[in-house]
Design goal:
With 382 residues, the protein is α/β, with parallel strands linked by helices. The chain has two domains: 55 residues, DNA polymerase, domain 1; 297 residues, Aldolase class I (TIM Barrel, Alpha-Beta Barrel). Helix content is 33%, strand content 18%. It contains twelve helices and twelve strands. Helix 11 links the parallel strand 11 and strand 12. The radius of gyration is 21 Å and the shape is globular. It starts with 29 loop residues before the first helix and ends with a helix.
Length: 382
């Protein structure tokens, strides 16, 4: 397959004629909210009050916003807090500690988010697009194609909805807060770059302008859009980068991750190394283990050769290749496909070979198999 010209846009075009999501408080910076409220003929401080209700108090009922004059409340809510998504289905697993929600957006598009409660943290996995244009054949979302990008507010609302459920004691384990967010749901986050960066800023803005989360608790995943990885390093937000590699060689990765026909393995990994070098944040290499496809011992050796070729001259105190961590993912298969999870013996051998080369390696604690845990399965079924 010939490589497409480098001048092609990094964001795949969305279908024409789609309406944009309604403007929401979470789409705007604090200054932009104040300006908008002023344009409605209301005092600017009302914007901060509204932000406090949304981000700090997690209020979704205007009747509870009693510090807003009744005469202005309807106008403020209509102008800055429009309804963005409606839950269609909520499925639970792990005795209620895992909750997967299928959302219908304002235009009928479907996306999914997952809340996962662990003993020491609560993680929200969020979608950044309705569908995905990357066309990875083993991924349920990729099989459906791209419908559209999500807005910043549609991404943030997934996290806020999870935070509300925790605050109201609706999740097993009692009340709590969202401590981590991973952009590993439906879509390729860096193909919707502007909205994703906007969402990261809302999540990390100090309350009440945002949720006040630590950037170190946020992970942005990508299949390897190398220019966008380098752009992310310029943002000055120390999020964790996760590179979904899935194969250490171009021949196989061209099949598993079609964008590899444009940004080859070496280019994607080099961009990830540069991100780690500049941000001092360790990169996670995501590797879905597929039986008989990419789980051979020799491919573990090839992956080790690839990763240890970077950082050899680094003065990083963590060591020669402390810049990277490999996260092996037992594949959550989708119905009717040839892709299935690796044999546990092959998985253990893969781990052994990487660790023998000094590369930190873990196997992801997969959740939600009984509730169509792979992203995109609920939306596809609906």
């Amino acid at each position: 397959m010939t490589e497409p010209p480098r001048s092609l846009p990094l964001v795949l075009a969305e279908p024409r004629g789609r309406r944009k999501p309604p403007r929401h408080l979470a789409d705007l910076s604090a200054a932009e909210r104040t300006e908008l409220v002023g344009g409605l003929g209301l005092p600017g401080f009302r914007a901060r009050q509204l932000s406090t209700h949304y981000f700090s108090r997690l209020v979704d009922d205007p009747a509870e916003m009693t510090d807003l004059p009744a005469a202005d409340r309807e106008q403020l809510v209509a102008g800055l807090l429009p309804a963005l998504m409606t839950p269609l289905r909520v499925l639970e697993a792990d005795r209620g500690a895992t909750r997967k929600t299928l959302w219908r957006l304002f235009d009928g598009a479907l996306v999914e988010s997952v809340l996962m409660r662990y003993p020491d943290r609560v993680t929200m996995c969020v979608s950044s697009q309705a569908g995905c244009g990357m066309a990875c054949p083993f991924c349920a979302t990729g099989q459906g194609g791209l419908q559209r990008n999500l807005s910043t507010a549609e991404i943030v609302e997934q996290v806020v909805a999870g935070a509300r459920a925790l605050a109201r004691g609706e999740v097993a384990g009692g009340t709590g807060r969202v401590s981590n967010v991973v952009f590993m749901g439906m879509g390729e986050p860096l193909a919707n770059y502007k909205a994703v960066i906007g969402a990261v800023r809302r999540l990390t803005d100090k309350a009440p302008d945002g949720l006040g989360m630590s950037a170190r608790g946020i992970t942005v995943s990508t299949v390897g859009l190398a220019p966008r990885i380098r752009q992310l390093a310029d943002e000055g937000i120390p999020v964790t980068l996760a590179l979904s590699l899935h194969a250490p060689d171009d021949e196989l990765r061209d099949e598993l991750v079609p964008i590899n026909n444009r940004f080859k393995v070496a280019e994607a990994v080099e961009a990830a190394w540069e991100y780690a070098r500049r941000t001092k944040r360790r990169v996670s290499i995501e590797y879905a283990m597929m039986r008989g496809i990419n789980d051979q011992g020799w491919r573990a050796d090839l992956l080790a050769d690839l990763l240890t070729s970077y950082g050899a001259d680094s003065d990083d105190r963590r060591g020669r290749w402390g810049w990277v961590h490999v996260n092996l993912i037992p594949l959550n298969p989708t119905p009717g496909t040839k892709w299935t999870a690796s044999d546990p013996r092959d998985e253990r051998e893969f781990v052994r070979r990487l660790e023998a080369r000094g590369i930190p390696t873990t196997v992801r604690d997969t959740r939600g198999r009984e509730i169509d845990g792979a992203c995109g399965q609920l939306a596809a079924a609906e």
